[in-house]
Amino acid sequence: MRHFGGRKTIETKSDKLYRVAVRAVRAVATDAMIIEFNRTADFLAGQTVAITIPDSGIDARWYSIASAPAEPVFRVLFDLVPDGALTPGLARLRPGDYLLASLPRGSFTDDTTRRSVWIANGTGVAPFLSMVRAGISAPKTLIHGS
Length: 146
Fold this sequence. Notes:
Layout: E1 18-29, E2 32-38, E3 48-52, E4 61-64, E5 73-79, H1 87-92, E6 98-101, E7 116-121, H2 126-133, E8 140-145
Parallel strand pairs: 7-8
Antiparallel strand pairs: 1-2, 1-6, 2-5, 3-4, 3-6
């Protein structure tokens, strides 16, 4: 598979989940949080990872990775949904607790050479944060609403 920048994507075919340690959980805005955990594999800025809480019985949910490929962790930005199945439990996790995380996948990526307009709402800005952290930011324009 190819992304619109022309590079090959890193894509997994397995939905296997790996036990990973939580490194941090913090609020970044009202009802918006970041959870940081050990990486399961290399990835491209803009890809996603599925996560869930071990032994919770909750199906893994897919989230965009907000960290850069050179960083040693995955950062996931999520909306805290008070009556949600997964996010209240994610918000209660602490460093040293464990998550189950998939290998990264997806082809929503960009490159440094093409002019792009990025449009995001709320936590949908996460893949663009990953791209900026990876040095993919010019010639780009980000329009972000909330």
